[in-house]
Write a sequence for this structure.
């Protein structure tokens, strides 16, 4: 793997988005071929991160929950088409039962209810909201009557629903006779030797290598708190070395030291069942969703895995089973998307050109266009600035500034066509790269700096 290239990219993105630390590992076959941590796990104490540092993994937890459901299915204890009512969790929409399959694929028809967002923002102080849901049972009380929130019948559309994976945790308990956490420990973590993967506060507090949680503010990272209370939808905490064992198991079709899931069940999890309904701005599809597994379009193959975020921690795990390779990335705040960092790393590790990834292409285009533009002999000046992937045309005078966002409609190697809304009218703005030039309203403007 071109280690220097990858680390330069990771460090550049950490610097741009002010991430305190990042832990990464690359697995090839059954072996960890790269393990590295950059930055500080604790800024105030000046403690460096390590590949073994504990971070929250957010929605990567859903892969563990889905795998547990598939294990129970193999044992004949659940069927994916069981209605939730069988487990005392009845949810009916337009006269149709919601099933386990609907929850796994986020196709219940119920849009996100926002419990996790409110819980995290309340604990971290990010918003003036307070929803103290400390247990899955609290979440069940919160979502009572949520069938009335549905916008479609089950199985027709994907709406990412954290609450659905809370319900799956309760189904695992009902079917197995164990608590969710005991089931995960006994049937996934222990067989894989993942001894430093946690859910409970007391477990985390006993570990001496835990990344401090930081909320990202306009001024940079601000120390915060871990949002305990999230469970089967996003509550696990782990480290790059433990997750490498999980990654190796997925790459090797369910088997590491022992088999924890059949190849057939794993392939069923990975098979796309719902569209994410998102595209890169360059036009390519972003991802699809299976049974707890995301499927990212990646050159001529698919990267399987999941991303995760609980605000103060972000994470990405992705693998290409046909090429026996995967990557995990963990950070102790929110910044540049770790999914993008992971896909960049996988491109470099597999001999592909990371600069051809759609988000890298668009990002490079925006950076090339950003700057000061002037008309003939500098008679009129505008600025093109980029914030959160959105370019703006800015006119500044000593009395104030006007900002107009630009939305790309066509992207080529040397030209981007944008749409702007000016005075209630749609306006086409054309930007060319060689040299950077804007055709905006009645003006031709050339980049000066």
């Amino acid at each position: 793997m071109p280690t220097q290239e990858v680390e330069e990219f990771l460090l550049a993105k950490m610097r741009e988005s002010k991430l305190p630390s990042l832990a990464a590992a690359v697995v090839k076959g059954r072996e960890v071929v790269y393990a590295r941590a950059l930055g500080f796990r604790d800024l105030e104490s000046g403690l460096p991160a390590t590949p073994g540092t504990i971070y929250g993994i957010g929605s990567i937890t859903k892969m563990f929950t889905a795998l547990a459901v598939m294990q129970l299915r193999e044992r004949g204890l659940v069927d994916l088409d069981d209605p939730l009512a069988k487990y005392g969790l009845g949810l009916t929409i337009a006269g149709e039962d919601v099933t386990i399959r609907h929850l796994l694929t986020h196709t219940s028809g119920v849009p996100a209810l926002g419990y996790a967002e409110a819980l995290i923002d309340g604990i971290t102080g990010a918003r003036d909201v307070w929803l103290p849901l400390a247990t899955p049972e609290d979440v069940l009380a919160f979502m009572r009557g949520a069938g009335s929130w549905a916008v479609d019948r089950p199985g027709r559309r994907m709406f990412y629903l954290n609450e659905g994976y809370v319900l799956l945790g309760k189904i695992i308990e009902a079917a197995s006779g164990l608590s969710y956490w005991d089931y995960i420990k006994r049937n996934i973590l222990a067989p894989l030797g993942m001894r430093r993967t946690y859910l409970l506060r007391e477990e985390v507090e006993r570990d001496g290598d835990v990344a401090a949680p930081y909320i990202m503010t306009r001024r940079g990272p601000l120390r915060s708190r871990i949002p305990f209370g999230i469970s089967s939808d996003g509550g696990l905490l782990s480290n790059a070395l433990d997750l490498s064992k999980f990654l190796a198991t997925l790459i090797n079709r369910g088997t590491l030291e022992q088999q924890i899931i059949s190849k057939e069940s794993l392939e069923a999890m990975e098979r796309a069942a719902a569209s994410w309904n998102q595209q890169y701005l360059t036009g390519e599809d972003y991802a699809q969703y299976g049974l707890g597994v995301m499927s990212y379009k990646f050159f001529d193959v698919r990267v399987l895995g999941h991303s995760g975020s609980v605000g103060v921690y972000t994470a990405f795990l992705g693998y290409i089973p046909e090429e026996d390779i995967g990557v995990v990335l963990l950070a102790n705040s929110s910044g540049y998307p770790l999914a993008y960092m992971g896909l960049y790393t996988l491109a470099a590790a597999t001999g592909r050109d990371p600069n051809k990834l759609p988000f890298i292409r668009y990002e490079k285009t925006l950076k090339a266009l950003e700057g000061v533009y002037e008309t003939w002999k500098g008679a009129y000046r505008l600025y093109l600035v980029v914030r959160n992937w959105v370019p703006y045309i800015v006119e500044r005078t000593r009395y104030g500034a006007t900002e107009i966002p630009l939305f790309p409609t066509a992207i080529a190697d040397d030209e981007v066509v944008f749409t702007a809304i000016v005075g209630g009218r749609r306006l086409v703005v054309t930007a060319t790269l060689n040299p950077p030039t804007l055709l905006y309203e009645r003006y031709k403007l050339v980049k000066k700096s």
